Automatic annotation (TrEMBL):
It comes from Eisenbergiella tayi. Belongs to the class-D beta-lactamase family. Gene3D superfamilies: DD-peptidase/beta-lactamase superfamily. GO terms for molecular function: beta-lactamase activity; penicillin binding. Keywords: Antibiotic resistance, Hydrolase, Signal. PANTHER family: BETA-LACTAMASE YBXI-RELATED, PEPTIDOGLYCAN D,D-TRANSPEPTIDASE. Signal peptide: none annotated. Pfam families: Transpeptidase. This is beta-lactamase.
Amino acid sequence: MKTGSYTGLRFIGCLLFLLCIISMSGCVGKAEQIQETEALSGEGAGTGEETGAGQQENEEKPDITEESVKESLSEAVSIDIAEEKEVDADYSQAFQGINGCAVVYVPEDNSSYFYNKEMCMEQASPYSTFKIISALMGLHNGVIADETSAMEYNGTQYYNSAWNKDLSLREAFQTSCIWYFRQVIDAVGSAEVKKELEELRYGNCNITEWEGGDVNPLPELNGFWLDSSLRISPWEQVQVLARIFEGGSSYTEEETQILRSVMQNDMENRTILYGKTGTGPDGEGWFVGFVQNGEQNKYFAVYLNDPGNQETANGKKAKEIAEIIMRE
């Protein structure tokens, strides 16, 4: 992330600078010893009064030792690197008995809030939350230029009538149109997709089942991100989002700004909600994203896994839960 890389550079620079000080102080000490020896031997010596003044001046100079430098370095590091903090959060009222988990990550103070932490670390299919990454890859590789870039509709009558026309990126993202992002991913290509997933450290980075399974009856409505080979944990979801929006990835600011604009959901006072839902076939639901308040971002992931409870455990419900949590 931006804060991490910046802190790392400051740390290295500080370390090199202080090591130089140690080396220079050693050289200065040796030079002073030579001068004192010359003064005692009478070479270039002045009066006894001058010698005494010189000794007094030397006594007033603070000693620069390796221990003092290490202490200063330790203090500098403690200021620049926020200590990692984990909090067990009770979000049970928001979940209302639905089996699931939530994690909130705040880069500003490197703190993480977990509800059902064990589940937050387990990988699952990302479903439509992967459209965040698909859109970004499309922008990065020139497949789409901006939020108005359209993909051509093939004439099939889909179960979601909003998909039955040419769609822009913004429209496809808002309606969660699978065929649009299937076209984007195919245009980017498997080699580039694999490379970028590994750079982002996106879950298991497994795209071996490129065409996906049979979640949907039509091939253009399936893919490796839909109950197939690609899997990611809620904790990994927030880390990936933080890398993208905190400057810790290879994507440009223009690309992330376009992505941010299509992810925007709601705005309340000065707080803006960005995110994407995802829904599985049997009681699985996601909502991942971040809230922005001023210049601070808080990243979150809510994941539901309640088999047999499809009516209440889905992406829509995950979003409702996330909104409650992020207001707290």
